[in-house]
Amino acid sequence: MESVRCIKDLKPEIEECALKCRVTRIWDAVNTKANNDFISLDLILIDEKGDQIHAVIKKVHATHFRPLIQEGKIYVISNFKVLLNRLSFRPVHNNYMISFYAITSIKEIKNDIIGIQRHQFEFLDFHDVPKRLNNDLHLTGELQLNTTSATKIYVDLDILEAERLRSKFENETIAVEKKNLRTVSTTDSNDQATKNRITISKLLGIRWNENKQENIYTCLASIEEVLSKFGWFYTSCYSCRKKLHNIGSKLWCNNCNMDIEFPVLRYKLHLLVKDESGSATFVVFDREAEKLTKDMESNDNSIPKAIKMVEGKSYVFQIRLSDFNLKDASQTFTVSKIFENDVNSLNLHPAKVNKDKKLLTENEDKGKGL
Known about the structure:
This protein is α+β, with helices and mostly antiparallel strands.
């Protein structure tokens, strides 16, 4: 008969043991790089001493076990395998994890007299969040704290940490403004992609005017060349995204006026673009640059090769003019948005535009002959 053990006593060499625990979390682990294909049913288990361990039920066994387990309930689990934990994205601090077999036994305990807590959180001090950057041992997310299929948001829990936070602000009045969220439709996106459409030659000809209100334009252009002489990334501040400067052995952010211990590398691409009227240099930063490269493949992980693959492709670029462009007549423009829509679906492709113009001219000529 298996002996019931605590989580801290579990080791790979121990066999035929059982674990009395509460299932505090359940989620589907998915492969985000393969259309969110289901990988496994994952659990976090907690015992009476408050220790936690990650348990995995492989895809082949998930259909059998899913109806047998409910989040929040207490079970005695036996006939499982204890393994060394993964090297990255661990949901809890434990060097070991559990894997279910087809013969794993699960028995629900309905009358628990010991009492196993419902939740156990491993809180991270806010000032320590940057230390997790580029450290994927534990599942935290990037610096902007991206969610995953394992993410769950708890609201107003009855735990000590939440009570301390409530007490901290109990004497403060915080005004909350309710706003209706508006979903951006495809039509809205199309409108933005065609708003203030101008050619590159007209863009180059715009001059500064102190009374000018509109400074956002869109251009349909093709990428002739990624100008590699300018590089393809820069070292930035994790807070304000500004470029950092080397001062001795430190990286300094002039905007935040501080030494940055955890810098972030971000895209910065200089693109030579052209349309039928002329050419110019467009500069694309970070997230917009990722739109150009997200579907690129490179067998040798050579990022520059992947970036070069955008050459010859057409995009709709949104340009926000600044005093730098208008006063100094600079021919380098910063791209504020790249529309990912297929230019053909937006009826913006040059061939489509020329075809429509030809049809319009033919119809006008026919009208004159009536």
